[in-house]
């Protein structure tokens, strides 16, 4: 199910294999076996990627629910066993160099600690923290901070992602008002309203619903939808990003439950702060 969800969210076997830290052939074999077990195609293949079939779309919703339940079981069992583990939620963005620097620093400080990573989509900016699925989250603000403690690690300027052939793509900078007549990607109903408002430039918008970073980029590429993204991240061919002059920066933050006295969380946050401070000086 994790392999299937990765392909369904990336809509590309190569990117999914990279995300899963495996080669593409065994991933393709797993998906073909899953389709054989179900008796129906889950994806429509093309040279540029894949799209979900109606059967695949149904399975994606069920698979996400199943994996969320499995994660909750794992957290409860680990707590009962008193295992020396820390579960870290990370908002799906594998291109941030700060994460690699943090992982290396944390290994040096806690070589015997078992780190479990929960990679989450864009519908939950707390990465499962409120649901008890993770101990600490490495994510982006803003979101509802009630009963949470938040520490800012870095602030990134934000730009608008456009198709490369968009008339505005050649500009040096833009203002939000210049995008008022465009369609923007949306998050599903029930997504944190502070989070939704930020990524919609502070006002209600209309456009296709997405859940993952790759889905955001694909709706821009295929539909000409616009969206926002932190500057400095690699984009697929055919897309461009233009800085926005009147958009508040996107804050990378560490967040944990208010009052949680777990010393492993405190250590993680301090190491994260040092790792990101080193990045800013370079």
Briefly characterize the structure.
By secondary structure, the chain is an alpha+beta fold.
Structural account:
There is one protein chain. With 282 residues, the chain is α+β, with helices and mostly antiparallel strands. It is 39% helix and 21% strand. The chain contains eight helices and ten strands. It has helices at residues 2-10, 13-19, 24-38, 54-81, 97-109, 193-199, 213-223, 263-281; strands at 43-46, 49-52, 85-91, 114-120, 136-141, 148-156, 158-163, 227-230, 239-243, 250-257. The protein has a five-stranded mixed β-sheet with strand order 4-3-5-10-6, sandwiched between helices. Strands 8-7-9 form a three-stranded antiparallel β-sheet, with helices on one face. Strands 1-2 form a two-stranded antiparallel sheet. A hairpin with a 2-residue loop joins strand 1 (43-46) and strand 2 (49-52). Helix 1 crosses helix 2 (13-19), helix 1 packs across helix 4 and helix 5 (97-109) packs across helix 8. The model has no long low-confidence stretch (mean pLDDT 88).
Give the key terms.
282 residues; globular; five-stranded mixed β-sheet; three-stranded antiparallel β-sheet; alpha+beta
Which word captures the global form? Answer: globular
Q: Could you give the distance between the termini?
A: 40 Å
Radius of gyration using CA atoms only: 19 Å
Q: What does the main sheet amount to?
A: 5 strands, mixed
Helix content: 25-40%
Which parts are unreliable, with pLDDT below 50 for 5 consecutive residues or more? none
Q: Order of strands in the sheet with the most strands?
A: 4-3-5-10-6
Number of helical segments with 4 or more residues: 8
Q: What is the mean predicted local confidence, pLDDT?
A: 88
Question: Using DSSP, what is the number of strands?
Answer: 10
Oligomer: single chain
Strand percentage lies at 15-25%
Pattern of helices and strands: HHHEEHEHEEEEHHEEEH
């Amino acid at each position: 199910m994790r392999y299937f969800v990765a392909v369904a969210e990336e809509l590309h076997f190569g990117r999914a294999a990279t995300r899963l830290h495996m080669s593409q052939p065994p991933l393709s074999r797993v998906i073909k076996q899953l389709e054989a077990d179900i008796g129906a195609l889950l994806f429509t293949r093309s040279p540029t990627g894949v799209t979900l079939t109606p059967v695949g779309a149904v399975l994606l919703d069920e698979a996400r629910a199943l994996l969320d339940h499995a994660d909750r079981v794992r957290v409860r069992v680990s707590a009962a066993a008193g295992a020396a583990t820390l579960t870290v939620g990370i908002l799906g963005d594998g291109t941030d160099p700060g994460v690699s620097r943090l992982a290396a620093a944390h290994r040096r400080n806690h070589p015997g600690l078992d780190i479990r990573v929960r990679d989450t989509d864009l519908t939950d900016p707390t990465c499962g923290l409120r649901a008890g699925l993770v101990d600490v989250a490495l994510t982006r603000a803003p979101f509802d901070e009630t009963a949470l403690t938040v520490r800012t690690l870095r602030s990134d300027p934000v730009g608008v992602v456009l198709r490369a052939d968009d008339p505005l793509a050649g500009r040096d900078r833009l203002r939000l008002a210049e995008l008022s007549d465009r369609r923007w990607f949306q998050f599903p109903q029930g997504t944190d309203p502070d989070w939704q408002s930020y990524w919609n430039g502070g006002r209600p918008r209309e456009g296709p619903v997405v859940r993952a970073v790759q889905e955001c980029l694909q709706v821009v590429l295929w539909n000409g939808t616009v969206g926002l993204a932190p500057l400095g991240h690699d984009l697929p061919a055919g897309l461009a990003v233009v800085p926005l002059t009147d958009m508040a920066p996107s804050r990378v933050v560490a967040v944990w439950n208010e009052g949680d006295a777990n010393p492993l969380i405190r250590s993680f946050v301090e190491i994260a702060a040092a790792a990101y401070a080193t990045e800013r000086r370079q």
